[in-house]
Design goal:
Elements: H1 2-7, E1 10-11, H2 21-35, H3 51-63, E2 67-71, H4 74-89, E3 93-95, H5 101-104, H6 109-112, E4 117-119, H7 130-134, E5 142-146, H8 159-171, E6 175-179, H9 187-190, H10 194-198, E7 203-207, E8 218-222, H11 224-236, H12 245-257, H13 262-282, E9 289-291, E10 299-304, H14 308-322, E11 324-325, E12 342-347, H15 357-376
Parallel strand pairs: 1-11, 3-4, 3-5, 5-6, 6-7
Antiparallel strand pairs: 2-8, 7-8, 9-10, 10-12
Helix pairs in contact: 2-12, 3-12, 4-11, 13-15, 14-15
């Protein structure tokens, strides 16, 4: 599949066309002079007067916080944040979502490594409401909100719902932590700048490779006393690496290159989602789901009633034979979805901006034909057991 993506003339989703080490190094060298003074000294254990310190100050400035601390991984940053709050509140119970990144993708690090306990205000595929937070039957020290909630479809609450949830946590004498790996692109949905969003929380985690196209790395942002404690725990968790300048350099370049364009990506994601839905309907697919039908960020899900192996075969054939990569990899749904269907996540980035609605509808019909050739049935017979469920979420 990787070779098919690299050979395709047109690729809609961001992130599927992988780079070689040489290509990534060449891109970093090309972007580096505009991102940072390359005559400055390399970092040593994250010293403040280095590129790491510059990235931390730049991140705090973008988020409007007093300080920020660089971490090699988001998993480490999340555990440190919640570990700090457990110590400060005296309560190791965290209110979080069962579909959150911490629950699904971090190997239970919050419990195994940090000794925390998770309770769930809701199991619905959305952020918890204020009423659900008030109704939790036991005290909790921190409320962790993933913005957007990726495994539910990159969904966000409304601004009023978010502020009400935060107020409910405060009324329950809990602090608020934002799992904001993808917080960068939430501004258009909320209609608020990043500092106003970040100001709702006591701590905010952001990623430098999700949405910004960095190599890796993350940051925790918050008050001065919180970030100082986070630095101490970063060392204890093994995150004080000797040198991390390539990662920091790529992050600074991403802040320059991608952050100003994210609103444009979010706007075009709505165009892409609508055109995909129209294309699937025009192709006679009796059931599909584009979720959310109007994306909240520049990422959303597409669901079809076929095994992922069959859809991935169609992806490869379309890329190799038609030169078009409309979708990335399809997988069986996780705990958010039913069996018997496959789901793919679609990220709209710079390459997708050249795709018109007509381009997308045409490529969608072409993809459906490749699915049928791969064994997905004829018009009217595609996923018959799902007839009646067509929609865009």
């Amino acid at each position: 599949m990787r070779a098919a993506f690299r050979g395709a003339r047109r690729v809609l989703p961001a992130g599927v066309r992988r780079e070689t080490v040489r290509e990534r190094l060449d891109r970093l060298v090309a972007e580096a002079p505009a991102a940072y003074d390359l005559d400055d000294w390399a970092d040593v254990y994250g010293n403040d007067d280095s590129i790491i310190g510059e990235l931390e100050r730049r991140t705090a400035g973008v988020l409007g916080t007093v300080g920020a601390v660089f971490f090699p991984t988001g998993t480490m940053a999340q555990q440190v944040a919640l570990r700090c709050w457990a110590g400060r509140t005296g309560n190791a119970t965290v209110a979080g979502h069962p579909l959150s990144h911490m629950e699904v993708h971090e190997g239970d690090a919050w419990a195994v490594v940090s000794g925390l306990r998770m309770v769930h205000p809701t199991h619905a595929p959305r952020s918890p409401t204020a009423a659900e937070i008030y109704d939790l039957p036991e005290p909790f020290g921190a409320l962790a909100l993933e913005l957007p909630l990726r495994d539910a479809g990159f969904v966000l609450p409304t601004w009023d719902e978010l502020t009400a949830a935060v107020e409910a946590a405060r009324d329950r004498e809990a602090v608020v932590h934002f799992d904001g790996a993808r917080l960068w692109e939430c501004g258009p949905h909320f209609g608020r700048p990043l500092p106003e969003i970040a100001a709702l929380a006591d701590s905010v985690y952001v990623s430098f490779y999700k949405s910004l196209g960095g190599i890796s790395g993350a940051a925790l942002a918050g008050t001065e006393d919180f970030t100082e404690e986070a630095r101490a725990w970063r060392h204890r968790y093994g995150g004080r690496l000797f040198q991390q300048w390539p990662v920091a350099l790529a992050a600074l370049a991403g802040l320059d290159r991608e952050l100003p364009r994210l609103a444009e990506y979010v706007a075009h994601a709505k165009v892409v989602a609508r055109a995909l839905g129209e294309g699937l309907a025009e192709a006679g697919v009796p059931w599909f789901r584009v979720h959310p039908g109007v994306p909240h960020t520049h990422q959303f899900q597409v669901w079809l009633p076929h095994p992922p192996e069959l859809l991935n075969e169609a992806v490869v054939h379309q890329a190799e034979q038609a030169g078009t990569a409309l979708f990335g990899r399809w997988d069986e749904p996780g705990p958010a979805g039913p069996p018997g269907v496959a789901m793919t996540e679609l990220t709209v980035g710079a390459a997708a901006l050249d795709w018109t609605e007509g381009d997308i509808r045409s490529a969608t019909g072409e993809f459906v034909n490749f699915v049928r050739r791969a064994g997905g049935g004829e018009p009217g017979g595609l996923g018959e057991s799902w007839v009646g469920g067509r929609g865009q979420g």
